[in-house]
């Protein structure tokens, strides 16, 4: 027999019962307000304390494990080689016997459906054989906890997940186990408190129902008052509607009158418009005739101008043709002159190449002469400066001697 821990992989994934009481989500204010009351509905213990309760939970776990193992038998029998290493030789032999009995049972059912005669005795023996084989297989599997644990905990890896009605049955059994586990967690004192709390809740519901009836009566009175106000408003609306209808009739009469007046004015304006159109049509016809009479001499004059233009174009064409011929001749002369110029340019370049050394020698001689001339001019300049200096010194000396002679004469009394 498997323990409670070995079957946790299937049913411990579901939420606990107290979290699945309702699917309506409450607001945080309601949760905080009723937190003290809701704790009464939750058990204080987390594990079943009584021996009888543990035995009940053990029986439920074994029952769920057997359901899951029985649902896996057809898949295991169909692929016995895949599970041979896990199950062992003894269980594989029993599964082969179970498979043979199942195939024989299916063949008999198919044959009897075609022949429409059913051997009940033989069919009953096959059922007992399949049932006994199933019991032996399940007993052997439960005797080896590692096999049961592997198939139940790792059902996806071993590809033994239950399907269809057997899956629903296993789910219902798991829900029943949770319900029983939830009920077994309550002690007698907690049960009494829970019943007392439920009684208080019932009394509060009665008070709330009375309050609701009182509020409904007040609501009826308010509705009646509101209906009276609505009736008065409806009467006022009817008066306003009658006023609006009378105003609408008056406005309709005024609009009809304005429309008739507009139609009269429109007809008169249209008559005047037709007269104006006739007058303008006559004026347009007269203008057209006058235009045709006046345009004839202009057309003749235009024809004469066009003829003169054509004559001038012919003359211009002949003149341009003559100018083209003259330009062609001038271009030929220019080409010949250009050739002569090119020849003379080449000759000039050759002469320049010949006279280039002479030019360099000439430049050297001229440079020497320039330097000699500069030296001669410098010597002349220095000579002139010497003469000027001597003349200046002589004049200074003569002035000094004259002043000295005058001073001596003054001393002697001559002057």
Describe the fold and architecture.
The protein has 415 residues and is an all-alpha fold. The protein has three domains: 162 residues, no CATH class; 117 residues; 62 residues. It has eleven helices and no strands.
Taking pLDDT < 50 over at least 5 consecutive residues as the criterion, the unreliable ranges are 1-26
Fraction of residues in helices? over 70%
What's the overall geometry? Answer: elongated
Mean residue pLDDT: 78
Number of strands: 0
What can be said about the biggest beta sheet?
none
What is the H-and-E element order? HHHHHHHHHHH
- Beta-strand portion reads under 5%
Rg (CA only):
70 Å
Oligomer: single chain
What count of structural domains?
Answer: 3
Given the structure, what is the number of helices?
11
Distance between the termini: 177 Å
Structural class: mainly alpha
Write the layout of secondary structure elements.
Blueprint: H1 8-11, H2 28-33, H3 35-41, H4 51-78, H5 80-87, H6 89-115, H7 120-143, H8 145-153, H9 155-158, H10 164-184, H11 188-412
Helix pairs in contact: 4-6, 4-7, 4-10, 5-6, 6-7
Which key phrases capture this entry?
mainly alpha; 415 residues; elongated; 3 domains; disordered N terminus; 87% helix
Overview in brief:
By secondary structure, the protein is mainly alpha-helical.
